[in-house]
Structures are given as structure tokens and as C-alpha cells.
Amino acid sequence: xxxxxxxxxxxxxxxxxxxxxxxxxxxxxxxxxxxxxxxxxxxxxxxxxxxxxxxxxxxxxxxxxxxxxxxxxxxxxxxxxxxxxxxxxxxxxxxxxxxxxxxxxxxxxxxxxxxxxxxxxxxxxxxxxxxxxxxxxxxxxxxxxxxxxxxxxxxxxxxxxxxxxxxxxxxxxxxxxxxxxxxxxxxxxxxxxxxxxxxxxxxxxxxxxxxxxxxxxxxxxxxxxxxxxxxxxxxxxxxxxxxxxxxxxxxxxxxxxxxxxxxxxxxxxxxxxxxxxxxxxxxxxxxxxxxxxxxxxxxxxxxxxxxxxxxxxxxxxxxxxxxxxxxxxxxxxxxxxxxxxxxxxxxxxxxxxxxxxxxxxxxxxxxxxxxxxxxxxxxxxxxxxxxxxxxxxxxxxxxxxxxxxxxxxxxxxxxxxxxxxxxxx
DNA sequence: GCGTACCGGT
Length: 425
What we know:
InterPro entries: PPR_rpt, TPR-like_helical_dom_sf. By secondary structure, the chain is mainly α.
């Protein structure tokens, strides 16, 4: 008990605690106080200790609310087993988990990718006849979307509306996303009208979700019209919107407009981020504006703007396209020196560049090195090497590579090495 | 109690 008080003293007024907790004076008051302390506690272990005290020392049955607070903290700390235990404990004490309890459990397990667990909590909730509310339904819509079950998301949305709940901005934005993924473009656009009719003003996220849906489906011209609709509605832009539009302009071969938008961001009070830079870099590369690309890349370094693996992969691709193969290779060294680890995309880009430059031996050697080093080689990386061999007319090598891809248990890893002498430039 | 959108390789 003393230890417990000491630990509680870290977050509360020690004097007050002692006064209220001399439990033999007024037990009811100290319990009430402890429950209120509990509601402000965010450390999961301390809140658990508090709950135990209420349970055991005070022999008082905590409320569902008290359990919900502790379960929330436990879930935030990703203590899944403890959460299960608390849920069972509630049941044993004949406390009925409510929609908050279920909402938290479903959301946190779902967010962690533990979809099966999340769905089993939903099942329990339905068995308990606990009615959903807006937040719970929104969470379920998001969960279904992440699972790729768009028709489930759509049916939850209509269940929500049927039960008389008015969707809010977040729910509508989620649905725009769902309709977009389900390729129901018209329905996604209709959401904008429906939300306005229900007094919910579409925000930046609503529009940029539609914009990225357009991009994902190569509807770049439609993106332009959505963008002007957004401007007409006086909806403010942010970095994400600008990034999407820089991409759109690039895809439409409107590098000038992309450029103009990027360089006007700061005037609009939007700080371009690494994604903005990476996107403009790619637009420059696609437009064969190699000088601009190199300049931008080095400008980032001079100005100390964050560069990541995508920045380097993009720039490596550009050097490949401008036939500066050595510089592409140098960038791999440079990124490693700066602590940015190359990934499968870096390697497939560089292998494809070397193969096209007629340096198949070098490409094969790198591929071999990756295999031996145990770096994860994904489908595209294999495919890149297979295509490189095929283009060079080395069908046997391509076949060996395909066999390793299709059946990684076949131990043919050493074979390409045996062929290597013929390949050296 | 909960929460959404943007960049790179065949």
C-alpha cells in the first residue's frame, strides 16, 4: 500500500492523497476520489494498480467506466493479453461491456492489423446486443476498408444511416475513400453532394481523397476539374493536396504547372515536405528536365531538407534515364554513407539500369550478392533480373532465375555464378 | 471512446 501511494504521488498531490486515503475515515469518499484519479491516469500499469486497489483493498465493484479507462490505457500500450484479461474480469464481475468498451477493442486490435481479433470482438458485441453509435460504425467502416471488404463497409454505412445516425465529416470522408477503392467513382462524387445536403462541409481531406482516387485510376483530367471545384468552394489547400496536384500536372505533361504550384506553396503558407520534393523530382525526370532534377536534388541537400530512400530511388532512376550509369551507382554508395538503406526498389532500379547499359555481369553480380547476403528479394526484383537475362538472350539464366522465383526451395542459387564468366564485360 | 488523404522499382 505504501509503495502504491508513493507511485501515485508522482502524478497527484501527495498531501491530498494521504488525507483522502486514510481509508478508515471515509471509505466512500476515498473510493470516489480514486475513481476520479483513475479517470485521469494514462499510465497503464498505474491505472491497473489503481483498479486492483479499488477491487481488492476497497472491496468495491468498479464501474464499467473504470474498466473502460484501464482498458484504454492497456490498449494504447499494446498489452493485448492484459486487455483480454480485463474483459474477462468484467464479465466475471457481472459488468456488461458497453459500446465504448467494444469500440476501443475493435479499433485498437484493428489498427494493429489484428483483424481476426477485431472481428471476434465485433461478434461478441453483436451477441451482447450492444447497439453501435457513430464512432463505432466509423471504426467498423475503416476496419472493413483496411480489410478490402468494401461491400461490408458500404453496408455498415447504410446500417448507420438506417438507425437514424447522421454521419459526420470523418464518416463521409471514410466513405469517399471506400467508394474510391471500390471504383464506384460516381458514388464517391455523390458523397460530396450528400454531405453538403446534410450540413457537413467537405474539407481538404474530402477533396484530396477524391483527387487521389482520380490519380489511382489515371483520371488526371477529372482531377483537374475536382481541383478547380475545390478552389471554387474556397476549400483551403494543404501539402497533401499540392503533392497530389504536382503529380497530376506531371502525368499530364504539364511540368510548367507542376513547377509553378510547387514554388508557390510557400507563398500559400504551405511548407513543401519530402513528398513534395520527391514528386517534383519525378516530374522533372519524366519531362526529361534532368538539369532541373539534379539542381533540385542538390538544393535539398544544401538547404538541409530531409531526403529519404524514395528521394534516392527517384534520382537513381533519373540518372539511369539520362544515361549517367556511373552517377546512378554512386548514389547508392552516397545514400548508404548517409545512413539511408537501399531497399528492393533501389536494387531493381540499379539492376535494370546496368542491364540496359550492357553491364549485365555487374547486374548479375549485384543480384547474386543480394541473395547471398540474405536480403529479402521480392517478386519484382526477381522479375527485373529475369527480364535482364531475357533481353540479353540468356534464356537459360532467365529460366534458372524463374525457377528460383517459383520454387525457392530448389537450391539453384549457385548456378548463375557458374555461368558468370561468360557474362563479364 | 475513434478517425481519414500524398512520393519510388518489372
